[in-house]
Amino acid sequence: MLLLSTDTRCKEQHDIIRNVAGWYYFTHHLVEVAGPDACKLLDRIYVSNISALVPTRGRYTMMLTEEGIPQDDCVIFCLAEDKYWVSTLHCPRTLKEMEEHSSGLDVTFRKITKEVDMYAVQGPKAVDIVKSLVTEEIAGLKRFQIKDNHIGDVAVKIAKGGYTGENGFEIYCDVKDNRRIEEALEKAAPAFGAKKIDEFDVMAYTLATEAGFYLVTDIDEATPFETGMDWTIDWSKEEFLGKAAAEKAKELPHAQELVGITVDAKNVKVHGGPYGGCVSRDGREIGRVTKFTYGFTVGKWVGFALVKAGTVQPGDHVTLDWDVDAVVTPERRFIKK
């Protein structure tokens, strides 16, 4: 579904999260990696230093192809010295690389998505809502930190994080307990003016795009340096999947760059993603739209475009799909938080 600027239901749910708080069910794929060599396997695959994680701490990171192109971004949680969770949207890729890089290691890995459910609570009042539910203090949680807790007598894990640009938490529970967690959220939310969010476009597009978030799969065939993702790479690591290719790309001129774009017109239809609409300037095609949605906070269409390096500057006008006027923004974040 392409979000519309006139979609009052999406605007209402969007505003609830921006101004109060909302909760929703959205479980990523989860892969559990365990055993004495669990960390070694993860360090072979991911660009960040996973061995630096201590129990309860997590890290946003990225997995490259052998050619040095990002093929997944994810959060890895260290649950114990020999046990990790990988929260990803691309489980088949994850399991494939783990299988190919686990030779000689004492490690097991399996998809546990059907065993664990996750509920997100996002917004300025998210802390108050979750605090009212759990039995143990959460105020000291750091971003991407995960700790055991309870809601009533239900065992849960509470992680600080989210994909909205707001303060928020993720509640992980056994699937057999999901209805009890839903009931607890349904009971607690009204006292804070919070509501359940069920519009997927609000969760995955408008809130995230306004905050400058994007998935690496939105920008395939681009190096980490062309998309600003190179900050996740720990070059001190002796090896990781795609390191040799990434080192070469680091020294080469960038062929592309990821820019922010805005459109003031109210009624437009432009698609993003791997097959997103073309971006042109002066009648010449220079790239494609990677993500595009209506930003209810800023009152205009917002998104990202992958264009040929050096073809635009902030403030320049470009054309999307040959007939939609857009402006290149000075940064890829559309709200200040």
Provide structural commentary.
It is flat, with a radius of gyration of 21 Å. The model has no long low-confidence stretch (mean pLDDT 94). The longest helix has 12 residues, at 8-19. It is α+β, with helices and mostly antiparallel strands. A hairpin with a 5-residue loop joins strand 3 and strand 4 (70-80). It contains eight helices and 17 strands. The strands form three sheets. It has a six-stranded mixed β-sheet with strand order 8-9-10-7-1-11. The chain has a six-stranded antiparallel β-barrel with strand order 12-15-14-13-16-17.
Distance between the termini: 28 Å
Structure annotation, total helices: 8
* Main sheet attributes: strand count, strand direction, barrel closure: 6 strands, mixed
- Fraction of residues in β-strands: 25-35%
Mean pLDDT: 94
Task: Give the number of DSSP strands.
Answer: 17
Helix content: 10-25%
Structural class, judged by helices and strands? alpha+beta
Secondary structure layout:
Elements lengths: L7 H12 L2 E4 L3 E6 L3 H8 L12 E7 L5 E11 L2 E6 L2 H11 L6 E4 L4 E7 L3 H8 L12 E6 L2 E7 L7 E7 L3 H11 L6 E2 L3 H11 L13 H4 L15 H9 L4 E8 L14 E4 L2 E12 L4 E9 L8 E4 L3 E6 L8
Parallel strand pairs: 1-11
Antiparallel strand pairs: 1-7, 2-5, 2-6, 3-4, 4-5, 7-10, 8-9, 9-10, 12-15, 12-17, 13-14, 13-16, 14-15, 16-17
Helix pairs in contact: 1-6
Briefly say what this structure is.
With 337 residues, the chain is an alpha+beta fold.
